[in-house]
Amino acid sequence: MDWSATLNSIVAAAAPLVLATMGETISEKSGVINLSLEGSLRLSAMVGFVAAFWAGHALVGFAAAMGVGALIAAIMVLGNIKLKINQIALGFVLYLLAVELASFLGDPFVGERGEQVPPLPIPVLSDIPFIGKVLFDHNLVVYGSFLAVFVTWYFFYRTRAGLNIQGIGERPEGAFSRGVPVNRLRALYAIIGGALIGLAGAAYSLDVKLGWRETLTLNLGWIALAIVIFGGWHPVRVAFGCYFFGALQVAAFQLQDVFPGLAQVLPIAPFPLMILALVMIYAGWFVRVGERWPRARGWLVGDPPSAIGVIFERE
Amino acid sequence: MTTTERSPLALATIASVAAAVVVSALLLWLAGAPPLEAAGLILEGAFGSADKIANTLLAWTPLVLASAGLVVTFAAGMWNIGVEGQIVAGAIAASFVAREMPGSPWIVVPLTIVAGAIGGALWALLAGVLRTKGNVNEIFGGLGLDFLALGLTVYLVIGPWSREGTASTGGTDIFREEAWLPTTTLFGTEMPLLAVTMAIVGTLLVYYLLRGTRFGLRLKAVGRNPRSAFVLGIPNDRYILNAFALGGALAGIAGTVQVTGFQHKLVPAISGGYGFLGILVVLLAGFSAKWIAPIALFFIAVSVGSTTLELRLGLDSAFGGVLQGVIVLFVMFGTAIAAQRRRHTTARSGET
Amino acid sequence: MTLELRGIHKHFGAVRANDGVSISIEPGTLHGILGENGAGKSTLMKVLSGFIEADAGEISLDDTTLDLSSPADAIAAGIGMLHQDPLVFLQFTVLDNFLLGSPGSARVDRRAGLGELSRMSEELGFSFDPLQSARTLTVGERQQLEITRLLWLGAKVLILDEPTTGISAAQREQLFAVLRRLAGEGLIVLFVSHKLEEVEELCHSVTVMRSGKVVGAADMPVPPSELVAMMFGKMIEEPGRPEPMIGEPMLELSDFEVTSRTTAIRGLNLTVGAGEIIGLAGLEGSGQRGFLDALSGLVPPDGGKATLDGIDITDLSYRDHLGVGVHYLPAGRLEEGLVAGLTIEEHIALTTREQPFFIDWGVAEANAQASIDEFNVKGLPTSTAESLSGGNQQRLLLSLMPGYLKLLLMEHPTRGLDIESAEYVWSKILQRRSRRTSIVFASADLDELLTYSDRILVCFSGNIIKMLEADDTDGEELGYLIGGKERS
User: Fold this and answer.
1) Which residue in A235, B8, B128, C453 has the fewest CB atoms around it within 10 Å?
2) Residue B4 in contact with partner chain C when CB distance is under 8 A
3) Residues ≥6 apart with Cβ < 8 Å to C145
4) In angstroms, how far is CA A255 from the centroid of its own chain?
5) Is the separation of the CB atoms in C126 and C157 below 8 Å?
6) E strand map for C311-454
7) Which helix (H) or strand (E) holds C146?
8) How close C461 gets to chain A, by Cα (Å)?
């Protein structure tokens, strides 16, 4: 088995998932849970494909897909902030609507050959033995996913705005009292997150899986949601969650002939992990254990933004 | 809420539905289909013949059952996203009986239904226990369990229950006919009367349970204000678990109908998406059992009828789903706007 | 740099939290804002700090009219507020708490922040471990951190809302010293409190608020009796007290212990007779709630023993307490009593004992109508709980109580009710005494406590500091005691 080639394909396969999870992480860190993820991903994959197909250029597809993701997030977050509609209810309805819209509008394009992101090995770096193959023999989408992880991490932990966004998600009234415009920023970050999810959609249809069909991104949105949770809302851990899932997919593919049942079931793994993480975060017994060994707990799980899903109103 | 207060909301709902229909018509027109003709085709596809009516009713049944179950869990204040998994668990349990149980339909069929109910209830209780004992939000717990159920089905279909000599996701062997959900010959076609009866009974059961029993009343109190309910002496956790069990049982029967009435075998996508669609139905019905049957019929008619659009106009059948989604979205915004208007007027009248 | 508030109005629905408040404060002043709970102090301070917007009125600093539509505006104008529960982010480090919301470059320079934090805290005489999680700080240290941060941001007006709640005596001394020094440097310090002693000790001048209005302003020192009179209004000297009906011991507490966030009762021994009424006096959050929660079984006591009519109820669950004849009416009528969205008849059916599985709505409606008639509730059997006025909600809650009770616990039984409703509620409660029910209630209304209690327990900063015979005390003494001060 050629390990560098295997790792290379894991990194490439996980790239869109990394983009989507970064988008969701940014949104959730600010307190907005975008439950439409699965639908957003699919509709943006479709729109991205079609736009690139018509325009004859992949870049146009990526831009259109980002627009779709941002639009869905905007509907969600504005309905939530302005009209006090429950984030879960709204996100869920948007999920179903986006899924159906993708099928309906995308139907004529199923099976078409579309645009594709050209490979772009980075000169010199890609010649480094092993690492070069794993990290630097990709295309712009994959490099974009690396960048997204780094930028999200840098943004959260090294910038002033990143400190503020964490404050908004943690204790909005506290952030507000320090002069941070809570709802305006929540809208902004939810929309940015949505755009990243849109980008991820296009990355599937224009790069990783090429073409458009209804099952192109099936369940990957839900998987992204689960990975954000068991990644503890930390960009780097979430990214590793994505690579772990990518590895599962590759393993499933390799095992197809030997253990067909196992291969089909492997991609479900993020969900029990998510439940396990949630139990460790919330269940009484684990909470007490965690209080005794905070460091061990920190290794296993990360805490959700406390004010996630909570509408902020200044009395 | 008195009638005078409710009417603006009803008005908002009607206006929102109208707006949604207009938008959907526009969408059809953009897609190159004359909207009126499309509407006619949908109606014809859903109700155009006895056969079509039978198909529509068979699809309507699991949706109504799942929706009725969701009304129970919503009454307890729970977002039972795990409903899909509960349908699947019911289907698996019913399939087990259908595959393993010998004997006449008089024994096997009732047993598949009971097994489906138990399977769904147990799966729902997992989410309930995670929620009440582990403080795990039922939305994520339920979502995870949905996929675990899906994984279990896939495993069974390709693994232990795979067809002789093959290992594909196409499904198990067809059950022997004695295990099929019986139909009744009516107007020259096989009508799923038993299934329809179960759906109606299930809905009535939920309606009267919530409307007319001590259990239902206490459940509503727990759902609307768990703190007050507790102070009044109601054991919240027990009621939440009961709601999950009952909601899951109804979803499980929906799963039974899917395997023994429709597919006659277990396939990976056995839930048909009726669980999530049921959430839309219940959102639109304002969380009440009263309207779920007609709304579900409308939803199913649109879904089933849309397949004719595909055949005759070359449009994707997902149009039905688009219409459903647009309506619920519009009603959600419409009623929220109306509610906000009312808040503003009461706030203003409070000032004077 | 005079701070001036002119005609501030703010209402929430029909409640006038601030009703034309005008205050003027000179620079270098430590100014106390005194008032009972609900007097409108906190609302006024939130308006001043931009947290909420006033409906009308004007605020100016140094003759410049300020537009305070958000906390950002207030901070820019040099107004900083320390909230009662310091708005600290417990998950973050001390340093990040210091930096969150601060202006500056896009990249947050933690090294420079560290320098600023240690410089500022050194100047003020505080010491922090900047890289510790804020969770490890005491309430007093959280305040110190907030004060440090606000001054670093250039606050010229510092608002402190009940800052001495939950901090140690040493921290209080340190706080007061810092505040005096800041005033000496020309800052305006607004010290919001209900503790007479502290205002007396610290402030140069004082504004007293009651029911959303300014009822008095003075330069210190002012005789405390005058301040008490302003805070609580005119006292009814000789209230008509119902005859006591105290029977054999009903509730017996020995070495009873309740220690929670707000309550620190230790070694309480108390015997309450059947038909006796015990009033709990104290300002909001002084420990009454924790005591009532423990008596009701909502929260298990931390030690000691409680018996009711000879039955040991110490370790019983809340539901078992209900079973042995305890009933609890917390203050939040729609939060912890009634269920919004359910109608009167549904509430009646919900609480009817021996309710058969199938509810007969005809009977339920008749029962509801009977309760409505008996308790004078203004509503229909089909009226929802939230559509009723506060008085009618309380009447409904009374009607939901079981017929026979051994112990009735109430928190603010007549808060927000008009006089007629309040008297009606009490007439219903008093009826219970003749049926041997012991009653323990908390109230912020001194008249109510003096009128209806047989004995009064005074709660102060979590503890029960005094037991008084209602006959031997008066409003003035109570006013002192709940403010943490003996009458001199």
Assistant:
1) B8
2) no
3) C86, C88, C94, C97, C98, C126, C128, C134, C137
4) 26
5) no
6) 311-312, 326-329, 407-411, 438-443
7) helix C139-152
8) 25
- CB neighbourhood size of C267 (10 A): 11
Please give the angle made by the CA atoms of A196, A200 and A201, to the nearest 5 degrees. 120
B325 in contact with A, Cβ within 8 Å: yes
pLDDT in tens, chain A (315 residues): 688 899 999 999 999 999 999 999 999 999 999 999 999 999 999 999 999 999 999 999 999 999 999 999 999 999 999 999 999 999 999 999 999 999 999 998 998 888 888 889 999 898 898 889 899 999 999 999 999 999 999 999 999 999 999 999 999 999 999 999 999 999 999 999 999 999 999 999 999 888 899 889 989 999 999 999 989 999 999 999 999 999 998 888 888 777 766 777 788 888 988 898 888 888 877 777 777 887 778 878 888 898 888 888 876
Instruction: Search chain C and give the residue with CA nearest B347.
Output: C13
- Residue C376 predicted with pLDDT over 90: no
**What ipTM goes with this model?**
0.93
- φ, ψ dihedrals at C122, nearest 5°: -65, -45
In this structure, what token pair is assigned to residue B147?
């996929």
Q: Which of A159, A163, A177 sits opposite C87 (nearest CB)?
A: A177
The more confident residue out of A186 and C38 is A186
Which of B352, B343, B344 shows the shortest CA–CA distance to C16? B352
Cβ atoms of C66 and C77 closer than 8 Å = yes
H/E element holding A275? Answer: helix A270-282
Question: From its phi and psi, is residue C257 left (phi > 0), alpha (psi between -120 and 50) or beta?
Answer: beta
Instruction: Kindly identify which residue of chain A lies nearest to residue B153, measuring between CA atoms.
Output: A265
Residue A97: closest C-alpha in chain B: B325
Mutation choice for C interface testing from B215, B224, B225 by most C CBs within 10 A: B225
Closest CA to B326 of A94, C299, C251, A110: A94
Among the listed residues A218, A221, A272, the one whose alpha carbon sits nearest the alpha carbon of residue A34: A221
Which of A97, A222, A278 is nearest residue B141 as measured by Cβ atoms?
A278
Cβ contact B87:B255 at 8 Å: yes
HEC string of chain B equals CCHHHHHHHHHHHHHHHHHHHHHHHHHHHHCCCCHHHHHHHHHHHHHCCHHHHHHHHHHHHHHHHHHHHHHHHHHCCCCCCCHHHHHHHHHHHHHHHHHHCCCCHHHHHHHHHHHHHHHHHHHHHHHHHHHHHHCCCHHHHHHHHHHHHHHHHHHHHHCCCCCCCCCCCCCCCCCCHHHCCCCEEECCEEECHHHHHHHHHHHHHHHHHHHHEHHHHHHHHHHHCHHHHHHCCCCHHHHHHHHHHHHHHHHHHHHHHHHHHHHCCCCCCCCCCHHHHHHHHHHHCCCCHHHHHHHHHHHHHHHHHHHHHHHHHCCCCCHHHHHHHHHHHHHHHHHHHHHHHHHHHHHHHHHC
Whole-angstrom Cα distance, residue A42 to residue A45? 5
Using the predicted structure, report yes or no on whether residue B1 has a pLDDT greater than 60.
no
Residue with tokens 């000789």: C238
Give CA–CA dist B305/B44, Å, rounded: 7
> Could you tell me which residues are beta bridge partners of residue C80?
C158
Of A163, A175, A181, the CB nearest to C96: A163
User: How do residues C77-108 score in pLDDT, each as one tens digit?
Assistant: 999 999 888 899 988 999 999 999 999 889 99
pTM over 0.90: yes
Q: Which of residues 67-86 of B touch A (CB under 8 A)?
A: 79, 81
**Average of per-residue pLDDT values in chain B:** 91
Nearest to C338 among B215, B217, B228 (CB): B228
Condensed to tens digits (0 to 9), the pLDDT of residues B225-242 reads 999 999 999 999 999 999
Hey, is the C-beta of B324 within 8 angstroms of any chain A C-beta?
Answer: yes
